[in-house]
Amino acid sequence: MYVSLNWVKKYVDLPKDLSVDQLIYDLTMRTVEVEGYENPADKYHDIIVGKILEVKPHPNADKLRICITDIGEEEPVQIVCGGSNLYDGEHVVVCRPGAEVIWHGEGEPVVIKEGKLRGEYSYGMICNASEVYLADIFPPESDETIVDLQGEGTPGQNIADLVGMNDIVIEIDNKSLTNRPDLWGHYGIARELAAIYKVDLKPLPDNTDAIKGLPEFPIEIQAPDKCPRYSALEIKNVDAQKESPIWMKTALMKAGLRSINAIVDITNYVMLDVGQPTHAFDRTHVTEKIIVRNAAPGEKLELLDHNQLDLTTYDLVICDAEEPMALAGIRGGRKDSILPDTTSVLLEVADFTAQAIRKTGKRFDEKTDASIRYEKGLDTQRVDQGLAEAMALFKQLFPDAEFTAFGENYPEKTERAEVKITKDFMDTRLGKEFSEEDVKDTLGRLGFDVDFDGTTYTCLAPTWRSTGDIAIKDDILDEMARLHSFESFSAKPLPVNFEHAVNQPKESIDRHVREYLAFRCGFYEVFTYPWVDEHYMKAAGVNLDSTIRLATPPSPDQANLRPSLVPGMLQTAVSNLRYFDSFRVFESAEVFQQGVYHESSEDETLPLQKHYVTGMIVGNDPKTQFFQAKGVIENLARTCQVEPLSWKQVERPAWADDNVWLNIMAGKEMIGTLALVRVSALAEAGIKHAQIALFEFDEDMLTPYKSRDNEFEHLPVFPLVEKDLSIIVDEAVTWQEIEKAIEKHTREVKFVEEYRGSQIPEGKKSIMLTVKIGSDKGTMKAKQIDKQMNKIVKTLENRVGAQLRDA
């Protein structure tokens, strides 16, 4: 946002010894971030007012003229010019030698020099408006039309002084204004500077008495939740073809806007002055009344460029008795536009809720000067300021203008925010004690009303700070600290005693899992985008209807947020198989699934966001790859200090092989899957000469051990006895069930091999395993060994129906 210091000075008398650099510093340190400043007059050096005394023909060129010009020096100078509108006595813009101009309004600045044109001496140049940065103030009819100042100015006067360009224009970072809707106008900045330098703020004009007794113009608000106030003033005897005065054109130009005509310029000037957007409708286009409502299903709004907006039932529109005329708070439509023959207007001065404007503007990708201000949250009382300012300007620019009707609908008034803060809280947090008088004076300069009962301050914020800016007691701390300058506070140690460390094992799981996969298991970590190409979504068997879609995706085929990390893994595999035959990679990241994680309002919800971990082993030996991946998951629980994981077949994901898959279980909850990627999925992803073993699980479902209280256990003092067993069990019996059945009777159980053949009955399988047994009391003797082995065999018979295999 651009702020004119001359404009600000209309409302506040700044200290006379205040330098621009100090003002910029104070404003940055106490209120908003200033990105830079400049004096527009700097580019008008040696560009002055000249008076043409005589126009003579050029002896060597039909289109050139010799102008004897008074430029405020002892003698007139001779300037050769090709302007088409030269005449004796004309006041023009003259560039003396050394001035910089944009030649014919295009390209880089060129330094003017003395010289000859077609053999005739020329001192400087008489300029077209576009050549001296004045096209917005003096619109040229053609490239040959020079600036006609209509007798304004005196010869030799710098043109910057004549048009009001000798000023300091400050550029403020818009992001630093996000929470300060009161600062989106020059009056708001003036009010802030008045508080900083402890000087008086001049009041705005209030001539709203002129609307009392006027006939009522009907205003109907059907969506009061989106429009808390709407005022409309009917004004006759105006002229859309009238240009604004130079001072207004210059003010708009310095603020970054272009002059259109006097009517439109007034609405823009009011917005830049007090921060209240206004809009002028051609009165003859408004039928009967104004209706503020949500758009009807399928309704459209025609814009000035003949394009049409397809409205939704959420969009707020300004209508007459027939149809929509404007998109509320954002932009006008074709029907309401000011035309050259406009002689009467209906002036809208209204307030719309921030959320309504923000959501509609985002959907249509529309950012206007008005919508930027509305979506910050304006107070309803600012309508009065905008209305009074507009009325004064219409009377000033159109002396014959008449206010003929007024209407207002005011469903909800902005209430002043009340915040209570104790003196102890303020003094402790700020690290500095403030007296009651100091607190009241500081906050009072910002528009607060403050009461103190001996322990607690009750702070009543002004309406312009009560739309979300001031809400909690920490906001009061901020106001006190910044007004007193952060530099006035001495550094002190934090008043916090760190007595002991807080163990939060749940928060450490992600780091433990990533370090385990990277350092112990040889995986490389990858990072993929949360939006995934539809091609890989389909390859992973993801139903696109079940995904979260982006309103403005990076590309049409990347409009879906990932509900799983598997599609991204397939894409990663394709990318890396160009360079490697085998590799291991993993990713730990968020996935996005349909459902409500957090409901911030009736219309805005956040999707479910879960933290998943996925990893894959790519190569050409699927059996080895699968068991290696299985080993990774089996050792994860012990290494990462989480509750044990187990295996079960509950539900096969679409990307998994029909036979080689297992679900990962945490207790009784299924948290993920380990499987070979099915051949059809590999083919659809474009993977032809590789196999992939892949696992994915919900990291949030991992449960850390509650404590690290461990019991010491000696290593075996006496030798262990190792025995092999071959048993026959049903096909449905898993190794996990066998291991769990006898783990209490052994020191170690190890799988050796699995066998099926003619010696094994149908529906059975043979399992060879090795067990280690031992005693802490001494070396086991033969009878003890036999007794322990018999117990193991008997347990296997009872628990899993095992039979000891003879051969």
Report on the structure:
By secondary structure, this protein is of the alpha+beta class. The chain has 6 domains: 2-39 and 167-197, 2-Layer Sandwich (Phenylalanyl-tRNA Synthetase, Chain B, domain 1); 42-163, Nucleic acid-binding proteins (OB fold (Dihydrolipoamide Acetyltransferase, E2P)); 208-409, Phenylalanyl-tRNA Synthetase, Chain B, domain 3; 418-488, 2-Layer Sandwich (Phenylalanyl-tRNA Synthetase, Chain B, domain 1), CATH 3.30.56; 505-701, 2-Layer Sandwich (BirA Bifunctional Protein, domain 2), CATH 3.30.930; 721-804, 2-Layer Sandwich (Alpha-Beta Plaits), CATH 3.30.70. The chain has 19 helices and 40 strands. Strand 3 (47-58) and strand 4 form a beta hairpin. The N and C termini lie far apart (89 Å). The model has no long low-confidence stretch (mean pLDDT 92).
Summarize the structure.
With 807 residues, this protein is of the alpha+beta class. It is built from 19 helices and 40 strands. Helix 5 (246-254) crosses helix 6 (262-274).
